[in-house]
Automatic annotation (TrEMBL):
InterPro entries: Bact_Kbp, LysM, LysM_dom_sf. This is LysM peptidoglycan-binding domain-containing protein. The lineage of its organism: Bacteria, Pseudomonadati, Pseudomonadota, Betaproteobacteria, Burkholderiales. Keywords: Signal. Residues 1-23 form the signal peptide. It holds the Pfam family LysM. The keyword Lipoprotein does not apply. PANTHER family: PHAGE-LIKE ELEMENT PBSX PROTEIN XKDP (PTHR34700:SF4), POTASSIUM BINDING PROTEIN KBP (PTHR34700). It comes from the Bacteria. Residues 46-95 form the LysM domain. It comes from Undibacterium seohonense.
Length: 368
């Protein structure tokens, strides 16, 4: 099967350390050896000037066998990966061949102090309202933005306790934008909510237990008046409606706008998981599709985790020995980039695959 093209992804990454002149670090400190997976391409360029429209995944793919190894060749620690610093057009990525590392610098004449032909960067953090919008975007908005702001997953205990629409004026059953609805349940002091109804139940491929429900997003409501008695209801106004809301639909608080800071990294510990579902209810996924897996924050997964995709090796008869069954090796065919994490479920973007992704496939820590 032909190789799927690599998706253009962009990741924010820290500039928390000033960039030394090329070759200078070799004299100052011992540089840890890279893992076997994080090797440079034999034809890697000496440098790359960042331009608008570039992505960090695409840039690192110019230098590395595995683009997700960017943090390792940059020499980032865990805290640096989590800080929301940004990369901007006109900055230059250098290949420090002496130390086997990538370096970042501004072009000459754009601030900083000059050293060996490079302008050394100073630490910087820019807010989104003050220049952050000029930075290379994280993951393409058109691919994942809806999945960042909408619930996606309602875990089993959360669904049971979620506030629910119980009635509407004049005995109506279905309502749209501008209509009033009555809600019963603990709002926990919230005033703005998304409305959803449960979609397909997600079952763990290993235990067969239901671990959550995909949430079908319906719209948003805003609190107008709270209940005055214990048996009363809260009054809400429908402010947006993707489709008609009905009695029994559930409410979940609108999450804050996320600050995206995706830096690819392998899990800190050995991890094995399975593909639970392909978003949208189909059985197969390919390039740019979104899938859920049966591991989440409780298993140490966080945003930016990169995992290998594969499937179990087939069991076939050994034709050389009385046809006794033998198991072929597991076949790994691609990578998954995790962009949203729940307690027991995570969502990832399919990338760099040479085969289709099927429900039940293997997901594991990349082998180094």
């Amino acid at each position: 099967m032909k190789k799927f093209s690599t998706i253009a992804l962009a990741f924010a990454f820290p500039l928390a350390v000033s960039v030394p002149a090329l070759g200078q670090e070799a004299e100052n400190s011992q540089v840890p050896a890279l893992s076997s997976k994080c090797t440079f391409l034999p034809d890697a360029p000496d440098k790359h000037v960042v331009v608008k429209g570039d992505t960090l995944w695409g840039i690192s793919g110019r230098f590395l066998q595995n683009p997700w190894c960017w943090p390792e060749v940059w020499g980032m620690n865990k805290e640096e990966i989590r800080n929301p610093h940004w990369i901007y057009p006109k900055q230059i990525v250098y290949f420090d061949r002496v130390n086997g590392r990538l370096r970042l610098a501004n072009p000459l004449g754009e601030g900083g102090s000059q050293a060996s032909g490079i302008t050394k960067l100073s630490p910087q953090i820019r807010s989104l309202s003050n220049g952050g919008s000029e930075a290379i975007s994280a993951i393409p908005n058109n691919l994942i933005e809806p999945y960042l702001s909408q619930p996606l997953i309602i875990e089993k205990d959360e669904f049971v306790n979620a506030p629910r629409i119980v009635a509407a004026p004049e005995g109506r059953v279905y309502m749209g934008k501008g209509d009033k609805v009555y809600v019963k349940g603990d709002l926990k002091s919230g005033t703005s909510f998304q409305v959803f109804r449960p979609g397909i139940a997600l079952k763990d491929p290993d235990t067969k237990a239901i671990i959550g429900y995909e949430a079908v997003y319906i719209g948003a409501v805003k609190l107008e008046r709270t209940a005055k008695t214990e048996d009363g209801v809260d009054s809400f106004l429908i402010v947006t409606s993707k489709e008609e809301m009905g009695i029994g639909d559930r409410l979940v608080p609108i999450p804050p706008t996320p600050i995206i800071n995706y830096v690819p990294h392998a899990p800190e510990q050995e991890l094995k998981a399975r593909v639970v579902a392909v978003y949208g209810g189909v059985n197969y996924a390919g390039q740019n599709n979104i899938v859920s897996i049966n591991k989440g924050s409780s298993s140490g997964i966080d945003v930016g985790t990169v995992l290998e995709l594969g499937r179990f090796g087939k069991v076939i008869p050994d034709r050389t020995n009385d046809k006794k069954p033998i198991r072929l090796p597991d076949e790994m065919y691609g990578q998954l980039f995790v962009f949203r994490v729940f307690k027991n479920i995570s969502y990832g973007l399919v990338m760099q695959v040479t085969d289709v992704v099927s429900v039940g496939d293997i997901v594991r820590t990349p082998v180094k």
